[in-house]
Design goal:
6-stranded mixed β-sheet; alpha+beta; about 30% helix
């Protein structure tokens, strides 16, 4: 059986969050290890899925963002700092994620959203901070300590070639910019979770993105076809229908 679905940007974020939460490495980390859930609007959805909380303004769970047709940052006074989650429990505001980097060990997970992904599965994140922002601080410890890096990212962020984009930007930032000037940092060795990966993690189906874009609130939408046994496709459709109407991130 085949079924066609269209997901808005926020619906995609919800599906991706559910897919990340269902990954075996996440299930094990939630039981036995520590997760650093870095900033990002998709990660705000993931926080809701794994902590059972509600984040009304998901744009507060990020630093960098693109809105009003320009690159920028969220308001610092309303910003929610990244959660450090040990054995499924948020350690609270007294534990800063940067301070915890030196305690990471194999089996732990670091989760960071991205701004670009290509057909090879390579993802990159934009940064305006001249020290590389979150990934600039975390990449070394995460890599050296054998920590798993997970990148939840929607197909609305699909670009032709991440490596080419990174190399093009290397050594020469923009001289002028509408919004904040950004650089691009690749996230090598990451488990990249798009809508496709999420759906195929949650159900024994095959999924393919066949179209993208839209208008009147469906900007950034993706149209996906799901293929599998009728019962599995029906279960997939049931989940998708349950999250239809997910409010847009303001």
């Amino acid at each position: 059986m085949r079924a066609q679905i269209t997901l808005t940007s926020s619906e995609s974020k919800r599906i991706i969050a559910k897919g990340v939460a269902a990954l075996p490495i996440m299930q094990k980390a939630l039981k036995d290890h520590t997760i650093i859930l870095a900033g990002g609007t998709t990660n705000a959805f993931l926080a809701e899925e794994i902590l059972g909380i509600k984040i009304e303004e998901k744009s507060t769970y990020t630093v960098g963002l693109i809105t009003d047709g320009k690159t920028g940052v969220s308001k610092e006074e309303t910003r929610i700092h990244p959660f450090v989650i040990a054995k499924g429990k948020n350690l609270g505001p007294d534990v800063h994620w940067k301070d915890y980097l030196s305690q990471l060990e194999p089996g732990d997970v670091f989760i960071k959203g991205g701004n670009a992904v290509d057909h090879t599965g390579l993802a990159a994140v934009a940064a305006s901070n001249l020290m590389g922002g979150t990934i600039g601080a975390a990449a070394g410890p995460v890599s050296i300590r054998g920590v798993k890096l997970i990148v939840p990212i929607g197909l609305e962020k699909l670009v032709p070639d991440v490596r080419e984009a990174v190399e093009f930007m290397a050594g020469h930032r923009a001289d002028e910019a509408i919004g904040d000037k950004i650089g691009l940092i690749p996230m090598l060795g990451a488990t990249v979770v798009t809508e496709i990966v999420a759906l195929e993690t949650l159900f024994p189906v095959q999924a393919k993105c066949i179209a993208a874009g839209g208008i009147n609130g469906s900007e950034g939408a993706v149209t996906i076809v799901i293929d599998g046994d009728e019962a599995d496709v029906d279960k997939t459709l049931k989940l998708v229908r349950s999250i239809k109407g997910e409010p847009a991130v303001k």
